[in-house]
Amino acid sequence: MSKLVIVGTVAFDAIETPFGKTDKILGGAATFIGLAASHFNIDAAAVSIVGGDFPQEYLDLLSDKNIDISGIEIVKEGKTFFWSGKYHNDMNTRDTLVTELNVLEHFKPVVPEDYKDAEIVMLGNLHPLVQQGVLDQMTKKPKLAILDTMNFWMDIALDDLMAVIKNVDVITINDEEARQLSGEYSLVVAARKIHEMGPKYVVIKKGEHGALLFHDDDVFYAPALPLEEVFDPTGAGDTFAGGFAGYLAKTGDTSFENMKNAIIYGSTLASFCVEKFGTERMQNLSNGEIHKRLLQFKQLTQFEIELT
Ligand code: AMP
Question: How far, in Å, is the centroid of ligand 1 from the Cα of 234?
Fold first, then answer.
């Protein structure tokens, strides 16, 4: 079993989908990653920052799931990162309405002492300099550094982003962002170009159309589980990343073959995340429910064919 360090936003989100609208609720990349990774019973720590306006019960929620929160700084006089987004009718695309960095603007991450030798580092969506700051604090080179990012950082901090991308083993990114980062429309060509930027493994998330894993000339594809109802896709990408990183930390095996299973775990957990607003579904998800859905996943993709 490996230790996992998670860095990312711990946030307030306000979300609007064709099904309804929320006030400020719990969100943030590190929150979703942590909730997903907590299902693997591993030692995991979250590194982030919140303001004095952040409710203690939200922090308790993470520590009750065995996530070490000593690396979440609380700035009493500051305001928590706030993001607001509105989904289009197809639920695959969204507009960001508001991004207020608040306390994130001057954030200097501090990795808890016990986690400076963690084998797996999950650099969730956050300023690339903060992501690099976490890597710099590791006392030995992690077995696997995984990075997630979004168009926002490509728009405002591309050079910093390119610098940290060079230092990671895996990048998880959605299809539109892969196109923006590489300047290529074909995802196969985009993955190759991103691979040349540094990461040996490139995971491209395609929302309801699943995820692709590229490594040299190998490609693996996992569909998303067809769901009757998608209520709110917020956090699905982070939940996927949390499942992916959590499974790799649990098994300690970072081979391409095992990454295929990690993709399946990530997709399975993400399929729950979208069923309710925000983190609601992930807060009370049982291992039995996950197991059942993994079986469904297996049935969905398994077939026997005789090739002569
Ligand atoms: P996802 O739907 O997986 O892309 O992630 C949505 C989560 O990302 C929300 O909970 C937001 O709080 C968080 N988020 C949105 N914009 C940013 C940003 N620029 N940097 C970091 N986290 C963000």
Answer: 8
